[in-house]
């Protein structure tokens, strides 16, 4: 599989929904496979909250594959022998695209809190700019899960002629209080950590030492990515072998797992980016600018394919079902499909249990569904 990584800089301003602008701004993107002659084989992959442009394959000298490597590649569901796949790092993220730690054009110092609050629409608008730069005016499909699913739906609503197929996985039309509440724990933990220094920390210090507030918040968030059943199966009531049962801070295996994921995370993800992306997730509402979800979805012309997971506690199946029923109620049943995957893994099933839905996605892309 051919992998290329590039960065493009745009000098023309990006006008954000908030009324703020980004000028200039940069987007890092990765491509897989080959673009065909008539440019008809393009698939956009949109990433989740902590994802990046590195969706598949392995970089030279590294062992860790991209975050959706089981799904994208030669002969896989997103078959890179057939499709030219592109994944762009969201603006606001900390993996190379313009973010809160990027230099402000006025003084060269990091934006920090001068960075604008972004919406999903802003992120997709920046991606559309990349596609125009690549002289790609339409794509075969847009595929994304979680926050990436929000982006996929945004493509469908705001750019109705851009994609033939939209595949929205484990996501929602608007973020509910349950998810916002989990995000609040992380936000408060970060803001109240003295080492956060009110946002004026040294990024090198965070990368070396981590940030306890982000670690604790990530632990809370990680609970929402799993489910009670998957935790039972993965950990049971097993206790860490070297910890004493009657030691006050002795740990169950699930506690050690939370510590490992929580305390490693801040070494590779910037806390300001996390705060900004969480805000983007919280304010997402596909009906913004419209009076009702019906009016918003009425613009859709792409084939909209919805996939949920029965054990997803973050974005529950009922949230995807609402989109499906709304599409049917407004007379668009001919361009919408919905499938709930039986899974008790939790929200992260879309990253982990790929074998449960990859054949279904193949059928969608082969237009057998």
Layout of SSEs?
Elements: E1 3-10, E2 14-15, E3 21-22, E4 25-32, E5 42-46, E6 72-73, E7 78-79, E8 84-88, H1 120-133, E9 139-145, H2 147-158, E10 163-169, H3 177-191, H4 203-209, H5 212-225, H6 228-235, H7 253-264, H8 271-283, H9 293-297, E11 303-309, H10 317-329, E12 336-341, H11 349-352, H12 358-365
Parallel strand pairs: 5-8, 5-9, 6-7, 9-10, 10-11, 11-12
Antiparallel strand pairs: 1-4, 2-3, 4-8
Helix pairs in contact: 1-2, 3-5, 3-8, 5-7
CATH superfamily of the largest domain: Alpha/Beta hydrolase fold, catalytic domain
CATH class designation of the largest domain: Alpha Beta
What is the CATH architecture descriptor of the largest domain? 3-Layer(aba) Sandwich
- Decide which structural class fits the backbone: alpha/beta
Please trace the helix and strand order, writing H or E for each element.
EEEEEEEEHEHEHHHHHHHEHEHH
Number of domains: 2
Fold and architecture overview:
- The strands form three sheets. The protein has an eight-stranded mixed β-sheet with strand order 1-4-8-5-9-10-11-12, sandwiched between helices. A two-stranded antiparallel sheet has the order 2-3. A two-stranded parallel ribbon has the order 6-7.
- The radius of gyration is 21 Å and the shape is globular.
- The two termini are 27 Å apart.
- The chain has twelve helices and twelve strands.
- The protein folds into two domains: 252 residues, Alpha/Beta hydrolase fold, catalytic domain (Rossmann fold), CATH 3.40.50.1820; 101 residues, Rna Polymerase Sigma Factor, Chain: A, CATH 1.10.1740.
- α3 runs antiparallel to α5.
- The chain is an alpha/beta fold.
- The longest helix is centred in the middle third of the chain and has 15 residues.
- 34% of the residues lie in helices and 17% in strands.
